[in-house]
UniProtKB/TrEMBL annotation:
<protein>
    <submittedName>
        <fullName>SAM-dependent methyltransferase</fullName>
        <ecNumber>2.1.1.-</ecNumber>
    </submittedName>
</protein>
<dbReference type="GO" id="GO:0032259">
    <property type="term" value="P:methylation"/>
</dbReference>
<keyword id="KW-0808">Transferase</keyword>
<dbReference type="Pfam" id="PF13489">
    <property type="entry name" value="Methyltransf_23"/>
</dbReference>
<keyword id="KW-0489">Methyltransferase</keyword>
<dbReference type="GO" id="GO:0008168">
    <property type="term" value="F:methyltransferase activity"/>
</dbReference>
<dbReference type="InterPro" id="IPR029063">
    <property type="entry name" value="SAM-dependent_MTases_sf"/>
</dbReference>
Amino acid sequence: MNRTCYLCASDQNSTVFVENGIDIVRCSNCGHVFSTYEQEEHYEGYWDDDSSYDLGWWDLAHREIYEDFIGKFLTASSGRILDVGCGLGFFVKRIGERKPGWEAIGYEISEKAVRFAKEKNGLKNVFPGIVQKSGIPRESLDIITLWDVIEHIPKPHSLLEYLHSLLKPGGILFLQTPNFPIQLFKANLKVLLKGMKPDGHYLEAKDHINDYTEKTMGLLAGQTGFKDCRFTILKPIASVSGSGGGKLGTLFKKTYYYATKTIWLLSFKTVNLNNTLFAVLKK
Ligand SMILES: [Zn+2]
């Protein structure tokens, strides 16, 4: 069990949630929240299970969010972008289709997922292994993205410092991760309504080792050399199942997205009630 905060090295903390015996704690010194579960540094469990390889779902569900990202960030006619933890390669593929002037590369620890990206998605520009061994030249990239990656990494300092070195001056590192205060609220509500189930999903205590807020994401950005950390709100990942539940789910997510975005804009970007954090770190 780990009880030391990786952001400030303090071992003083208090438990904010217990998920099936695993404590999730908040650092008394800096406020960072983390799971006490000890996960290996280069965990690739997610892609071990073939059942998550649902091509149609990935493609449809992520179309709007990727489109929103491309419209906001890939405004230049050409550039170089790296997707770290690219999974089955759908984001890399989308950029190739939408922005042929951009050179996109993906790195993914899971060899199985990369094989899939190459064989089924027809991608040549995705590579297996850890990105630190990629040999990508320093200051050669305009954008680096990590979609749902940062929360899985126990100690991400060295990775972020490495990625910082790959960016051109003024380049951006984009991180998508759950917005912890909202996730905690949802988890507490779930327990209140249905009780704690052994197979239930709350805060993913074994998978999401670090739980970020805008404040602690800002701390991490500063500690790894980035001069600016801002947030944006992108369209949600759609619920796609073909059933009525899928349509209702999508409608709910859309409504929630517009509501949180409106509150965020009206509060001059100080109140972020979206369940996802979209952090934009600038070099
Ligand atoms: Zn701390």
